[in-house]
Design brief:
It contains 7 helices and 15 strands. Strand 9 and strand 10 form a beta hairpin. The chain starts with a helix and ends in an 11-residue tail after the last strand. The protein is an alpha/beta fold. Helix 6 packs parallel to helix 7.
Length: 284
C-alpha cells in the first residue's frame, strides 16, 4: 500500500515538474517575443525619427551688392540682376544675367545704356512705364507685369507688389501702380524686394517671407522709423537694408543701418538683420 502511494506521489511530482517546466518555457517564449517586438518597434521608431528630421535642402540666394538699388542675385542656378545701372565694369565679376528685374523709371533703377551693354540672352521683367521707355530690341526681351500680377519663369513665381508714396509731400515721387516691388518664390524660399516705397498697407499682407530688401531714404522713400514699421508689419526672417543713400542739404548721405538694426532687434525676435555695404568708398 505504501509502495503504491509512493508511486502515485512520484507521478504527481513528475507531472508538477513538467507543468512548471512548461510554464517556464511559455514565460521565456513570451519574454523573447516581447523583447523582439520591442526591438522592432524601437527600430521602426528610430527610422521614423530619422526620416522626420531629414528636411529638403533649401536653395537660398547669394547676394552681391553693386550700388544703391543694384545687386546681383545668384539663385537656383540662375543669375538675377536687380535694377542694373552704372558702368558695365561693375558687373565684370559676374556671369551674364538670366533675368533682370526693373522696378521704376528713375535713373537709379533703370538705365538703357547699362541694359544695352549686357551680353547674352535674358528676360527683363518690367512695369509698363519702363517698357514704354525702352528701344524695340529691349522690348522684345521684356515681360510686362503690373501690380498684383504674377508670372511663372523657370522654377520661380514672380509677383509684382505695389510700391508708392503715401506721405502728402512725397506723393509726386512714386504714384501707385507706376512701379513694381517684387516677390520671388521658388516653392521653398520667398524673397521680397521693396522697390521705392513707403510703409504701405500691402506690406502687412506679405506672408512667410524668408528674405526682404527694405529701402530707406528721404525725401523719396522712407525714414528709418518708417522702414522699421514696414519691416515689423510682416516680420521677414531676414531683412537687408538697401537703397539707403539720401539727400540732405544738397548733399548725399547714408542712412544709419546700425540704428535700423538696433530698432528691429529690440522689437522682434523673428527678424534678423543682414547689413551689406552697397556703397564702397570709391563710389561716394
Amino acid at each position: 500500500m505504501l509502495r503504491q502511494e509512493s508511486i502515485v506521489n512520484s507521478h504527481k511530482i513528475i507531472e508538477m515538474k513538467k507543468t512548471t517546466l512548461l510554464l517556464i518555457l511559455v514565460a521565456l517564449n513570451f519574454a523573447c517575443n516581447k523583447a523582439e517586438k520591442k526591438e522592432k518597434t524601437t527600430e521602426k521608431s528610430s527610422t521614423i525619427e530619422a526620416t522626420s528630421i531629414k528636411t529638403k535642402e533649401v536653395n537660398t540666394p547669394k547676394i552681391n551688392p553693386i550700388s544703391h538699388a543694384s545687386f546681383v542675385m545668384e539663385w537656383g542656378n540662375k543669375v538675377w540682376y536687380n535694377d542694373p545701372v552704372g558702368s558695365i565694369e561693375d558687373y565684370a565679376d559676374f556671369k551674364n544675367p538670366d533675368v533682370i528685374l526693373i522696378s521704376d523709371i528713375h535713373g537709379d533703377h533703370f538705365s538703357i545704356e547699362t541694359l544695352l551693354s549686357l551680353k547674352g540672352e535674358f528676360k527683363i521683367i518690367v512695369p509698363r512705364t519702363v517698357f514704354e521707355e525702352m528701344p524695340e530690341n529691349l522690348q522684345k526681351k521684356s515681360i510686362v507685369i503690373k501690380n498684383e500680377e504674377s508670372i511663372k519663369w523657370e522654377d520661380f513665381k514672380i509677383q509684382a507688389i505695389p510700391m508708392y508714396n503715401i506721405t502728402e509731400e512725397r506723393l509726386k515721387f512714386h504714384t501707385k501702380g507706376r512701379g513694381n516691388g517684387y516677390l520671388i518664390d521658388n516653392g521653398s524660399y520667398r524673397t521680397y524686394i521693396s522697390g521705392d516705397t513707403e510703409n504701405i498697407p500691402e506690406m502687412a499682407e506679405l506672408k512667410n517671407i524668408d528674405l526682404a530688401f527694405m529701402c530707406m531714404n528721404l525725401p523719396n522713400t522712407m525714414s528709418i522709423k518708417q522702414a522699421v514699421e514696414a519691416t515689423l508689419s510682416f516680420e521677414p526672417k531676414t531683412v537687408i537694408p538697401y537703397h539707403y543713400r539720401g539727400m540732405k542739404d544738397g548733399e548725399y548721405h547714408l542712412y544709419n543701418t546700425e540704428v535700423f538694426e538696433r530698432l528691429i532687434s529690440d522689437a522682434s525676435d523673428q527678424t534678423k538683420i543682414k547689413r551689406i555695404n552697397f556703397y564702397p568708398e570709391k563710389q561716394m
